[in-house]
Amino acid sequence: MNFLFNKYSHFNLANIVTFFNITCGIFAIYFLTHDEFLGAALFAWLAGAFDIFDGKIARKFNLSTEFGIQLDSYADFLSFVIVPAMFIYFAIFDGKEQFFSMTFIAAVFVYYVISGLRRLIQFNLNANEGEVEKYFTGIPTPLGAILLWIVYLVFLTGYINEYFVLFFMVLVGYLLNSKIKIKHL
Fold first, then answer.
1. Average pLDDT in the 66-94 region?
2. Per mean pLDDT, which range of 14-23, 113-122, 135-144 is the poorest?
3. Band (130; pLDDT cuts 50, 70, 90)
4. Ranges of each domain in the chain
5. Which sequence ranges are marked TM in the entry (predicted)?
6. Helix (H, G, I), strand (E, B) or coil at 15
7. Which helix (H) or strand (E) holds 6?
8. Which CATH number fits domain 3-183: 3.90.930, 3.40.1000, 1.20.120, 3.40.50?
9. How many CA atoms lie within 13 A of 166 on its CB side?
């Protein structure tokens, strides 16, 4: 069991928690593709919990490595960029193709995914092993996912329409790479 606390093991405790994040993202996608939105939401939120704990464990037990930094960003891309985009698509737009310009919808979703990916790559380029910045530059992808979740919940109330959801996705995509400073918790 020494590998759990071996900084250079790819299966140390922090990385295993990150693998659980990835697993939750995969399960969320499974549920999305089967129109089981409650199951998808549950696994998306579990992925968020694992994302919080992997960093805390890495810092507490000095397990932060370049591999772990990269792994965490891949997990974040899946769980906090791909899953929320798929959630919005399947929950709001799937089956309504005849009412909306699918080219426009595709452009918005591609913009959001590329924005999230760009944000994570830039974060990795600026990250140093074992260090935590006091502020994020641009909103972190988990916060972007939470904002999309909130807009989905507001959409369910009927106060906003599909076009506002698309506008909000573009806005969040922009904020992911903005110069806004967000205090690191």
1. 96
2. 135-144
3. low
4. 3-183
5. 12-31, 37-53, 74-92, 98-114, 160-177
6. helix
7. none
8. 1.20.120
9. 16
Are 54 and 17 a contacting pair, CB within 8 Å? yes
- Dump the DSSP string for 111-154: HHHHHHHHHHHHHHHH--TT---SEEES--HHHHHHHHHHHHHH
- Provide the pLDDT for residue 184: 77
Q: What are phi and psi of 136, to 5 degrees?
A: -85, 145
Q: How far is residue 13's CA from residue 1's CA, in Å, rounded to a whole number? A: 10
Determine the length of the chain: 185
State mean pLDDT over 111-133: 88
75: tokens are 């997990």
